[in-house]
Specification:
Length: 212
């Protein structure tokens, strides 16, 4: 009787240990999944709500670069570049997200070497695959000039910006988002490789994202 009682006690004790181990692992798994989801929401440019006018999600972005480039006098010029605006409509939301829309570039550069001097129009398209591991996708843009300074060359360019985000624990992640530029008129290209890291965290109902 005493041996059976001891055996029964040992069996129940093992079960208790197994339960406590599972209970301790579960919050870690859920916390990692929550951090990954938060990081994806913060880094995914297509994490949007439906538009008010057109009933599909939209990605409207305006960009004015501040850059430094060589000038004709052998020095360098720093200032504002050309204004680029695109409005991408999200066409597919299941699995790999896909979107496409129009874009336009205005010749707003401070100095000639910082811009093209041309009005340009074209298309922008994006594809993003989101998973607990992170994000994988690219933003592709094509545009050609249609008006502007007659003394400046006609412009035809394409750019591709890969999005490679790999989620780590506690909201940390690795990222690579270098923009590749292709000058279709002069058959030249510039394809840098980006490498950086960042962290996301929640502050109340807000998601904060810091990266380099």
């Amino acid at each position: 009787m005493s041996h059976e009682g001891t055996g029964g006690f040992m069996s129940n004790n093992s079960g208790a240990h197994a339960f406590l181990l599972a209970a301790s692992i579960a919050p870690v798994v859920y916390a990692h999944a929550d951090n990954a989801d938060t990081a994806n929401k913060s880094n995914n440019p297509l994490n949007l709500a439906p538009g008010d006018v057109i009933g599909v999600p939209q990605l409207l972005r305006a960009t004015v670069p501040i850059s430094t480039r060589p000038d004709p006098n052998g020095g360098y010029s720093t200032g504002e570049g050309d204004l680029n605006i695109f409005d991408i409509f999200l066409l597919k939301t299941d699995g790999v997200q896909l979107g496409i829309g129009p874009q336009i570039t205005a010749p707003t550069a401070d100095q000639d070497e910082l811009g093209t001097g041309q009005w340009q129009a074209g298309l922008a398209a994006i594809a993003i695959d989101s998973s607990p591991r992170g994000l994988l996708g690219a933003l592709v843009q094509y545009q050609s000039s249609f008006a502007g300074d007659h003394d400046r060359a006609h412009v035809g360019t394409a750019t591709m910006q890969p999005f490679i985000i790999h989620n780590l624990a506690r909201g940390w992640y690795w990222r690579s988002t270098g923009t590749w530029t292709f000058d279709l008129k002069n058959d030249t290209h510039y394809t840098p490789l980006g490498l950086g890291g960042g962290k996301v965290w929640k502050s109340g109902s807000n998601i904060l994202n810091a990266f380099v």
